[in-house]
Design a protein that fits this description.
The chain has 302 residues and is α/β, with parallel strands linked by helices. It is built from eleven helices and ten strands. Helix 5 packs parallel to helix 7 and helix 7 runs parallel beside helix 8. The termini are far apart. The structure holds adenosine-5'-diphosphate and magnesium ion (MG).
Length: 302
C-alpha cells in the first residue's frame, strides 16, 4: 500500500505571484477588463496542443449562466482531459464557483453545453444524476458529521453514492471496506479512524472530505478553495495529496493560492467578469500582461 503524502518536487514561486503578494492595489480599482473579443488565449504550446487532441473528459461549450438578467458566466468554453488537474483562478466575483455549480447541476445553464465523456450534456441533467455519473463536488462549507467517527463518515459517504436511505452500512461490500481502508491510508487518517472529526485539524478535515468524495469513485472531482484557511504545511500536504488523487480521476480546483496552483496544476483557466481571460500553464498565464493587470499584479490571492 502506498504511503500517504509521497514527495512532490518543490517549485519556485512564479515571479508574478511574488509581485502580486507585494502589490498594494485592490480589485476595486481594477481597470476595464479585456472584452471577450480581445480575450487573450495563451495556448499553442505543444503540451496543450497534444492534450487537446485527446478526447476530453469534460467539454464546456459556450456556456452562460444568468441570475435575474445578470450574466455571471458568459460564453465560457474549455476542456478538461482525463487525469488532468485544472485550476480555475481569477478575482472574486469572476464566476469560478458559478461554473463549478453549473458542472454539478446546482446552477441552471442559460446557454451552451457541458459534455461529459462525450455523451452526457450535464447542462440538461439533475444534480443527483450528475453525481451518479461520477462528478463529485466539494463545497466550501464542511460536510463532515461530527457525531460519528472518521471511519463512519467514510462508510456513510460510500453508502451515499446512490441513496442515503436505500443502502445501510451492513450492505457495504467487502471491497468497499478495503477501498475505504486504502483511502484512509491515502489521506493519512487511517490511524485516526476511530476518532471523531472534532479532533482533527482544519486541514485534516478537508482531507477527510476529499477522502469521502473518493469513496464514490469519481471521474471528476470539483474542489472549491480546498486550501483556504490551511497552514503552509497543510497546503503542501494537500498538494501532495492531489498529485495522488490525479491518478484516480480528473480534478478542477478553484483557488486563490498561486503557489499551490503552480505546484499542482497541469493548466489553469483565468476567469474575469464571467469570461475566460486566458488559459495555459501557470508559467504561461503568469507572464500574460492582461492576467497580471487584472489579477496577479493586483494582489492575486484576493
Ligand atoms: N445565486 C446567485 N444569485 C445571484 N447572483 C449570483 C449568485 N451566485 C453568484 N452570483 C454572482 O455571480 C458572480 C460570480 O460569483 P461567483 O461565481 O461566486 O464568483 P467567484 O467564485 O469567482 O468569486 C458574482 O457577481 C456573484 O455575486
Ligand atoms: Mg467562489
Amino acid at each position: 500500500m502506498m504511503r500517504p503524502f509521497g514527495r512532490v518536487p518543490a517549485v519556485a514561486a512564479p515571479a508574478a505571484a511574488v509581485a502580486a503578494r507585494t502589490g498594494a492595489a485592490t480589485f476595486a480599482e481594477a481597470e476595464e477588463p479585456a472584452s471577450s473579443s480581445s480575450a487573450v488565449a495563451v495556448r499553442g504550446t505543444t503540451e496543450l496542443a497534444r492534450k487537446q487532441d485527446a478526447p476530453a473528459l469534460l467539454s464546456i461549450e459556450d456556456v452562460s449562466v444568468v441570475f435575474d438578467g445578470f450574466h455571471a458566466i458568459s460564453h465560457v468554453s474549455t476542456t478538461v482531459g482525463e487525469h488532468d488537474i485544472r485550476f480555475f483562478i481569477g478575482p472574486n466575483g469572476a464566476g469560478k464557483t458559478t461554473i463549478l455549480d453549473a458542472i454539478c447541476g446546482k446552477n441552471r445553464v442559460a446557454g451552451g453545453r457541458i459534455m461529459f465523456k462525450g455523451k452526457y450534456d450535464l447542462a440538461k441533467m439533475k444534480d443527483y444524476k450528475i453525481a451518479n455519473l461520477g462528478v463529485s463536488r466539494k463545497f466550501q462549507a464542511p460536510s463532515v458529521f461530527c457525531g460519528i467517527t472518521i471511519l463512519e463518515n467514510m462508510e456513510l459517504a460510500a453508502a451515499n453514492r446512490h441513496s442515503l436511505y436505500s443502502t445501510t452500512f451492513l450492505k457495504l461490500k467487502k471491497d468497499t471496506h478495503d477501498y475505504i481502508r486504502y483511502i484512509l491510508d491515502f489521506i493519512g487518517l487511517y490511524d485516526k479512524r476511530f476518532d471523531y472529526p472534532t479532533r482533527l485539524s482544519h486541514g485534516e478535515k478537508q482531507w477527510l472530505e476529499i477522502g469521502m468524495l473518493l469513496t464514490q469513485h469519481p471521474d471528476l472531482l470539483l474542489l472549491d478553495e480546498p486550501v483556504a484557511g490551511m497552514s503552509r504545511r497543510e497546503t503542501e500536504h494537500t498538494a501532495e495529496l492531489l498529485q495522488r488523487v490525479k491518478q484516480e480521476c480528473s480534478v478542477i480546483v478553484v483557488e486563490h493560492d498561486m503557489q499551490f496552483a503552480k505546484d499542482v496544476s497541469d493548466d489553469v483557466t483565468v476567469f474575469h467578469e464571467g469570461k475566460v481571460l486566458a488559459e495555459g500553464t501557470m508559467d504561461e498565464v503568469s507572464q500574460n500582461q492582461t492576467v497580471i493587470d487584472v489579477y496577479l499584479g493586483r494582489g492575486g490571492d484576493q
